[in-house]
Amino acid sequence: MLAAAATAQTLDPLAPKPPENQNGNALTNPGLSPEVEFLYELEVKFAADTAKGGGAAFSSWFAPDAVTLGNGKAPVVGYDAIAAAATWSPDAYQLTWTPEGARMGPAGDMGFTWGHYQGVSKDGQGSAAKTTGRYMTVWKKQPDGSWKVALDASNEGPAEDCCRVK
Q1: DSSP state at residue 78
Q2: First vs last Cα of the chain: how many Å apart?
Q3: Tally of helices (H runs) and strands (E runs) in the chain
Q4: DSSP classification of residue 159
Q5: pLDDT digits (tens, 9 = 90+) for 15-74
Q6: 2-156 has which fold?
Q7: Where are the chain's structural domains?
Q8: Are 66 and 79 in contact (CB under 8 A)?
Q9: Residue 115: which of 39, 54, 49, 33 has the closest Cα?
Q10: What is the CB-side half-sphere exposure of residue 143 using CA atoms within 13 A?
Q11: CA 22 – CA 163 distance, rounded (Å)
């Protein structure tokens, strides 16, 4: 999380800032381990690729048997179906996210990250349309030693003006 946290924060400047005591020092952040830092680095690379390459780059990170669970949508199962659904260009839709936490399984071949995401596109009138919410990515080590997304799940947050007292 040393460089990964700083890089992650630049990917989504609106995401909540990590607590000050999570500065990459094992004494002040006992949850930080090389395995957790590895998961953060994977997530940061995934987000950076997606920001540059859009849907094609996004789908390239998924395992052959992966699943996506989108807010209010049916599951999308398998790499081919995920790639067919992820057709946006980074000019039309900008998806950014920031990992806020991670855990590695005891065998070291599977782990997960979670955090905040933001999607920005244009509506029919050309105005910015923004969605925000939470996500979780499950990572799995592949037989060739690479790491791929096994599951990507997200849920949208409330509309920005939903909770204001009027």
Answers
A1: S
A2: 40
A3: 3, 6
A4: P
A5: 444 444 444 544 455 567 899 999 999 999 999 999 999 999 999 999 999 999 998 899
A6: Nuclear Transport Factor 2; Chain: A, (3.10.450)
A7: 2-156
A8: yes
A9: 39
A10: 1
A11: 30
Query: Is the pTM here over 0.85, yes or no?
Result: no
- The residue written with tokens 């007292």 in the block is 165
Residue-wise pLDDT for 63-122, tens only, equals: 999 999 998 899 999 999 999 999 999 999 999 999 999 999 999 999 999 999 999 998
Tokens linked to 128 = 């910015």
Name the strand (E) or helix (H) holding 71.
none
CA distances from 77 to 28, 31, 42, 45, 148 (A): 40, 32, 22, 23, 14
Between strands 147-156 and 62-69, the pairing is: parallel
Q: Which two tokens stand for residue 65?
A: 């048997």
Closest CA to 11 of 91, 89, 95, 90: 95
Q: Residues 34, 61: contact at Cβ < 8 Å?
A: no
- What tokens does 64 get? 């052959």
